[in-house]
Every structure is written in C-alpha cells, then in structure tokens.
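Lecture 7, part B: from sequences to assemblies.

Below are the input chains for today's worked example.
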Amino acid sequence: MQTDPHILRAFDRDLHSVQALVVRMGALVEEAIGKAAQALHGRDDALANSVRREDAAIDALEEQINADCARLIALRQPNAGDLRTVLSVMKVASNLERCGDYAKNLGKRTTVLNQSAPIGGLSASVLRMAGAVQQQLHAALDAYIKRDADLAASVRARDSEIDQIYSALFREILTHMLEDPRTITGCMHLHFIAKNIERVGDHATGIAEQVIYLVTGALPADQRPKGDTTAFETGA
Amino acid sequence: MQTDPHILRAFDRDLHSVQALVVRMGALVEEAIGKAAQALHGRDDALANSVRREDAAIDALEEQINADCARLIALRQPNAGDLRTVLSVMKVASNLERCGDYAKNLGKRTTVLNQSAPIGGLSASVLRMAGAVQQQLHAALDAYIKRDADLAASVRARDSEIDQIYSALFREILTHMLEDPRTITGCMHLHFIAKNIERVGDHATGIAEQVIYLVTGALPADQRPKGDTTAFETGA
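Predicted structure of the full complex, as structure tokens:
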C-alpha cells in the first residue's frame, strides 16, 4: 500500500524536518536548565529572568511540533510502524515542554531567593545536580535521534543516581532548616528547585523509554529503578 | 473521501469506545484523589496503601487508550478534524495518568506522616483543597465528553481559586514550621501533598483547554503562544 518510493520519501522528509524541531527544542531546554542553575548559583537576576522569558520559545516549538505531526498523519496516512514514530515525536516534545516549565520555575524561584541571604553551599549542590540532569537529557535525545536502545537503557539505569543526588540534597536542606529556622522559607524554595530538577531527570528517562519502545516495539517491562526514597523519610 | 456513512460510523464507534475508557479512567482518578485525601485526614494506612496499589489500573488504562488511538488512526485514517479529536483523547489520558501519580504519591506520603503526631488542622485544609480539585476534574471531564466550551472556560476561570487555597495552605504550613521545628519534616511532606493537589488542578485546566481546542480549533489565546515560531527562527 505504502510501497510507492515517492510516498515513502515524503514521509521520511516530513519526519526528518519535525525531528529537527525536536532537536532544537531539546537544545533550548538543556540550555535553559543550565542557565537557570547558574543564575541560582551566581545570584544573577538578569539571567534568571531571561530563562523565564525564553520558555515561550520552547512552548511555541511544542505547538509547532504537534501541529506538524498532526498534518503529517493526515497527509501521509502512515502505516502502524510509522505512526508509532510520529506519536513518539509528540510524546518527546511533551516531555521537553515540561522540562522547560521546570527551568522557568527555577528562574522564578531564583529571583525570590536572591532577595535574602544565601543558604550554605546549597546552590553549589543544585548546580551539580543540574549538570548531571543536563547530561541525562542530552544522552536521551542523542539516543532518540540515533534510535540507540543501548544508550537509552544506560540513561534509564543512571536515573537512580540523579535520585540519590536529590535525596542527599533533601537531607542537606532539612539540616539547614532544623539548625536555623530563619532559612525555612528559602529552603522550601530550594527543595522545590531540587525536586523539579529531579523531575527533569524523570522526563529524560521518559524519552529514553520512548526510544526503547520505538526500537523494540514495547515499553521496558521492568519497573525502573527508583532511588528517591525521601517520600519515605521520617527525618530527625 | 470519508463520506461513506459506513466508514464514518466505524470511526465514531471506535472513538466512542475509546472515550468510554477515558471516562472510566477519569472516575478512577477522581476516586483516588478523594480516597488519598481521606486517608491522610483519617490517618488510615490501609486506605492509603489501596490508593497506591490501584494506580496500576490507571496506568494500564492509559496504555490501552494510547494503543486503541494508534490503532484507530492506522485503521480509519481519519481526516484532520477527526484526527485532532483522537490526539486530544491521548492528551487527556496523559493528563489523567499524571493525576493518578499524584494521588499515589499522596498515599505514599500519608503512610509516612502517620508515623508521627498530626500537625494542627493541616489535613483538614488538604481535604478541602482535594475536594475542590476533584470538582474541577469532574467538571473538566464533563466538559470534554459534552464538548462544552463554556463549562471548560469556567473550569479554567476557577483554577485561580485552587491556587489561592494552595497559597493559604502554604502559609499555614510555614507557620507551623516556624513555631515548632519538630514539625519541619512532616510539614515538608504536607507541602508536597498540597503542591501535588494544586498540580492536579492544573491538569484539570489542561483538559479544559483541550475541550476549547476541540470546539473552537485553537487553544485559549491568553494561555499559550500559538505555533508560529518565526520569531525564533534566526535566534541565537
């Protein structure tokens, strides 16, 4: 039915151009997370505000990707396998859009945190965590573009490391709150920032799972390793 | 092309059956949120654990909806308008799945909170907030099934009320932490619970926006920038 090479090429060409948008979106999101963590660490309001403003470009890209995918489906009427690929593009764009929101939120909380004194070395820990998450996101998108299930599997495996960094940071934040109640409000913001960065890591894993789905035809059956145990912590 | 009444009926029948799954999924999610808040308020470990277990059924429904939608697209090759409807089904299912996760997380944190003394009247405030969010979710799904853009617009308008309830609860939590540092760990959990319930409200708004998109053909203009990314094409 879809054996006419003309039609096949048209689908591939359309897919390629929409995937180029995903790559651009991914680059913007990685950059936003890095800049947001740097703005926090450097107490840089201007940088934080630019991250907040630039989220609009990420949202606009998602809208365009969704519109292009819908047009692609309607126009090319892809077969089941191709359709799965197009639907995965929309899933990945949706993951990236959420990550952009988290970066924006990080920028917002940074401008609030800059109004009071810095709290210990917490922002350095956040910066390290953001760096690790950026790498995960980059590897996940790389795996996506190359359809590399092994690389995707390694992204999944490393997610528990991010969760462990988050858990350590959570305990660090808790210690500051208990030792100096004046830091409580700031610590609440930092806790959200840490949790949101951990969620970006979860979305990187989500993208990696889409890759495994695309390559193998099934989502990973095993429950992926979860290292964030703070929901179970009863504290001091 | 798609004027054969036989084909039209087949699409509508398929759409109807997949939408029935969305309705069932929505009912499970509403119930999970209500039960989770009650488990917290009543310090009921058994109820909290049942919410955690039952999330698997919600996840399974999303998987089925996605598979059914993909099959529907591949089989019926819907025109642009019908395709938009099918894609919206997947978006709504994705919103509901996230809400289910939040309910599950609420259950998890409840079993932890039950290990220490209750903190003031905070769980009653959480219960009220959960009730308001359940209503929002119910109205959003109602608007979705009836394709009622007015009802959807009212859901969007009421989201700021949820945000206000959350803000008041945030201040209440902060006060407890400052007055009695022994409550800090518990308050961190309660803060997450409150934030997650607020996020369920955001997803109800997301569903309402899908309704507006379906009925009017465009997302509400004041919410998100549309798909025109030309302003960013030459950006750095």
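Note for the exam: Chain A touches chain B at residues 56-57, 59-61, 63-64, 66-67, 70-71, 73-74, 77-80, 83-84, 87, 90, 94, 174, 177-178, 181, 184-185, 188, 191-192, 195, 219, 231-236 (CB under 8 Å). Keep this in mind when comparing with the next example.
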